[in-house]
Write a structure and sequence with these properties.
The chain is α+β, with helices and mostly antiparallel strands. Helices cover about 30% and strands about 25% of the residues. The protein contains 9 helices and 15 strands. A hairpin with a 2-residue loop joins strand 10 and strand 11. Helix 2 packs antiparallel against helix 3. The chain is elongated.
Length: about 375
């Protein structure tokens, strides 16, 4: 089956810049993302197609291979019998042994290999309020950046890296082992293909220096612990001119003094006096957007759950907003005065006269308990 041209998928010309490729992919991603097109197989197919095109065109090496050989240059399955280039098998054979013996293919057929910089992760702790409403946070991270003194070459100004005389700039030497001829990193230049006789002082010949940089991270409303924000190109600098890695900001939401979050709902315990539970009343209940009145009906039992709709968290992935669930906990009064105790004793005497009419749960539980104890006694008697 023929595959569409990657430039055509993103609506670009072949001379498009890296910035244009990134912008085109973002536009396609926003348009066809599955979250915006639920249960739309056609949109999902377009999204996957655009993602594949971007993965190839954003990498300079992959893009160069695609520009030269088409799909066969980046997808081995696309090169059928006789469809690949003459050097494909030899290159694959060399890659296998290069990986085994610590080598690898060099960019441009030899010389120093361009490696992509490492991805970084930053753990960001935020309050529940900031997670619910969103916030822009400045973070400071250590990272490896291309040395400005030598522009990444690793050599002092006015000097240049010299071609390694042992491997002649290939970065690898061929070793004969039995019937096989294998490659391994050059022992003199350690696979770089170049020798730096006068190393750059700031980077010590590495071409990269450690820096602290400050980044502004826009935390979208509704994020939760475990969510990640990807900052493209904000990771470590690549070596030998390779592309920069990405930075992943991992969200960690701190515990809140009042609320517990479960998905998009907020939960809280609301202690109430036993008189309010018995007679009913109005309570001021806090929410993340201010307090609201909660009407407590008479004869409310502990554990009763009240739902305040729309007072939870708006999802970061949809337009849905959760609820606030308030669970009442009846508080037993403490530090009673003599008069208060006498009043409660009078109340208890009047309630005893009413029997189970005032405490149906208590009497129901006691009846079940007596029945259970009786069954146990009968069982023990039979065992004897």
């Amino acid at each position: 089956m023929s595959q569409r041209d990657y430039y055509e998928i993103l609506g670009l010309e072949k001379n498009a810049s890296a910035a244009e490729i990134k912008k085109a992919y973002r536009r396609m991603s926003m348009k066809y993302h599955p979250d915006r097109n639920p249960n739309d197989a056609n949109a999902e197919a377009h999204f996957k197609e655009a993602k594949r095109a971007y993965e190839i065109l954003k990498e300079p090496q992959k893009r160069a291979a695609y520009d030269q050989f088409g799909h066969a240059g980046v997808d081995p399955s696309a090169a059928g019998a006789g469809g690949g280039q003459q050097g494909d098998f030899g290159d694959m054979f060399g890659d296998i042994f290069g990986d085994i013996f610590g080598g690898g293919r060099q960019q441009g057929g030899g010389g120093r290999r361009a490696n992509r910089g490492s991805d970084l992760q930053y753990n960001l702790q935020i309050s529940l309020e900031d997670a619910v409403f969103g916030k822009t946070v400045d973070i400071r991270i250590p990272t490896q950046e291309t040395c400005g003194e030598c522009n990444g070459s690793g050599a002092q100004k006015g000097t240049h890296p010299e071609t390694c005389p042992t491997c002649h700039g290939q970065g690898q030497v061929r070793m004969q082992q039995g019937f096989f001829s294998v490659q391994q990193p050059c022992p003199q230049c350690h696979g770089r293909g170049k020798i730096i006789s006068a190393p750059c002082t700031p980077c010590r010949g590495q071409g990269r220096v450690e820096r602290q940089k400050t980044l502004s991270v826009k935390v979208p409303a509704g994020v939760d612990t475990g969510d990640r924000i990807r900052l493209s190109g904000e990771g470590e600098a690549g070596s030998n001119g390779g592309p920069t890695g990405d930075l992943y900001v991992q969200m960690h939401v701190k515990e809140h003094g009042l609320f517990t979050r479960k998905e998009n709902d907020l939960h809280c315990n609301v202690p109430i006096a036993f008189t309010v539970a018995a007679l009913g009343g109005d309570l001021e209940v806090p929410t993340l957007k201010g307090s609201v009145k909660l009407k407590i009906p008479a004869e409310t039992q502990t554990g009763k759950l009240f739902r305040l709709r729309g007072k939870g968290v708006k999802s970061v992935r949809s337009t849905m907003t959760g609820d606030l669930l308030c669970q009442v906990v009846i508080e037993t009064p403490i530090n009673l005065t003599k008069v208060q105790k006498e009043l409660l004793e009078q109340l208890e005497n009047t309630m005893d006269a009413g029997g189970k009419r005032h405490s149906p749960q208590e009497h129901g539980w006691m009846n079940k308990a007596r029945s259970f104890v009786g069954d146990v006694k009968d069982w023990l008697k039979d065992e004897k």
